[in-house]
């Protein structure tokens, strides 16, 4: 730790020398239609910490901004269809840095970082051959179901965000024990306590990157992977490389468009119908 601190200090000073300055903590932020005020010192300081973090983690912040169009253009229409406020898309920012291939040390996977058990509970297939936590559309639908159930319990989207990190049971029991009605007023483990304010800071970053010192023009953002066709399959596929070749794409292109295919073949031991995307690769942004 003693070795790390000088490096972090040097990095911070270097970023400041380059002119990167975090935005000031605003009086309030509107999140999912709810106004979050920072008129208490504890709330102010928690928000200030996250604004500093997003400002000085340059590589990650820029990559997230570049990925945002590709991911949000798929996810936001699904959130709207299920009646989930669009601001809840920022949970993915905190969960996975908008990386659809993200895997946590604990085994949570995909943009929404579902653990295998929770994924199955919300209708996703998870095994060595097929893992729908990596299917952006299906994982987002599962997340919507989770979020709706959580909101029915708490009636407060910030508490829903906290429950996405710590679990609804843990948040509910702490609310009862500490006699408060909102998760932002709880004394929580540091990870969950920070989580809510990281979501708010993420919203500020994506709505106004220039305030954080970032300039990522629209033309530099990664485009959505195009769809040439969707092939419905109810039979096993013995060799996905040959399947890809038959449809005019490489195995790598097929896998990139269908991250839920985890092996070089599709066993279909579940006897289901699968939709496999044959991508139309866009040119450079």
Question: What is the topology?
Answer:
Blueprint: H1 4-18, E1 28-31, E2 34-37, H2 41-56, H3 58-81, H4 90-96, H5 116-121, H6 136-154, H7 157-166, H8 168-178, H9 190-207, E3 226-233, H10 240-246, H11 251-257, E4 274-280
Antiparallel strand pairs: 1-2, 3-4
Helix pairs in contact: 2-9, 3-6, 4-9, 6-7, 7-8, 7-9
At the first level of CATH, what is the class of the largest domain? Answer: Mainly Alpha
CATH T-level fold name of the largest domain: Lysozyme
Summarize model confidence as the mean pLDDT: 92
For the biggest sheet, the summary is: 2 strands, antiparallel
Summarize the helix and strand pattern as letters: HEEHHHHHHHHEHHE
Q: Low-confidence runs (pLDDT<50, min 5 residues)?
A: none
Morphology: globular
Helix content range? 40-55%
Number of helices: 11
Strand line-up across the major sheet = 1-2
Number of strands: 4
Q: What is the annotated CATH architecture of the largest domain?
A: Orthogonal Bundle
The fraction of residues in strands falls at 5-15%
Q: What separation lies between the terminal Cα atoms?
A: 41 Å
How large is the radius of gyration?
Answer: 21 Å
Detailed description of the structure:
With 285 residues, this protein is mainly α. It folds into two domains: 22-220, Orthogonal Bundle (Lysozyme), CATH 1.10.530; 226-280, Roll (Membrane-bound Lytic Murein Transglycosylase D, Chain A). It contains eleven helices and four strands. The strands form two sheets. It has a two-stranded antiparallel ribbon with strand order 1-2. It has a two-stranded antiparallel sheet with strand order 3-4. The two termini are 41 Å apart. The mean pLDDT is 92.
